[in-house]
Amino acid sequence: MTRPRQRSVPLLRESSSSIQSRPVRRRDPDQPSLPFDAMPSRVEPCLALLKQTVPQGPDWLYEVKWDGYRLAIHIEPRSIRILTRGGHDWTHRFPTIVAGARELGVTSCILDGEAVVLDEEGRSDFGALQRSLGGRGGKRISTESVFCAFDLLYFDGHDLTRTELSVRRHLLQDLIPETGYGAIRFSQDLDLAGEELLEHACHLGLEGIIAKRRDSPYRSGRLGDWQKIKCVQSDSFMIVGYEESASTRGGLGSLLLAGRKGQGWIYVGSVGTGFNRTEAEDLRKTLNRLQTKKPVVPLKGKRLVFSQPTLIAEIEFRGWTREGSLRHPSYKGLREIQDNAAVFDMTDATATKGRSTGD
Questions:
Q1: Minimal CA–CA distance to 344: which of 332, 329, 331, 355?
Q2: Which domain of life is it from (predicted)?
């Protein structure tokens, strides 16, 4: 019997499908428990492999693809830590999520999920998340963020990484309050055919969906147990300079972008949309501080200003041209160094057909 839950995600509000995860009895928090397995200080995350088609069949479950920062919440008897994908401690930057984690009443656990800022329709907005944190390198705390939990790696003295996903998610759902409006929320899965779900997600303006093998253990790295299928392509690219403009916002006409190839860089075109005047001015000031006379890509132009390959931008685009440039790119924001975002890898010949190293 499926337990009714508040439907705070637009994909769920408009769907008649049922949620797969079933509740289990909540553990009595007063009951003593022995630490059978030592709690790890960090678990290298399981990453989703980009695919162009949705895997089909009863062996797969499907979730919304959240567009935010991948985080792990470590709850211990006397402390709570929030770690980024790269292992950096960002506990102080998400006080609302920390408070929500404390209210779960769990003695010890590790939650895997995504910090997001939601718009009025319940869609995750990466740009809004960046602004809430003060931009790349910002020092602000984010009170607007919520944590969408999709996996449980450790619980009350038990390492669950070798347990199949369906069991981990049953336990996880039982930990999360049923309201669906708190700082910690359960990333719900739907009993819908994968292709139908993807079409529905794209229609609602979501980034895409994640498909996961129900019986898979939690394996670190990008091994195919989790797969992401996007409505619109989005990946991380290195900013290697900019084109000056006397007529546009902040004197910045467009950003010059590059993908990684081995130890070098390949130019993939420029992006001139997605940032406002204030963002353009900040980008130009930062890139001027990183200015270099030796470009890392073979470009020439009187209005081109080259920079050291330091800033990583998240770019939304509609595919690739025959010349290997991004088609209709749009700037979404800068990635944090602590986020450990991987720059798009151009090494393989299939890169321009949709292969991705980002998450």
A1: 355
A2: Bacteria
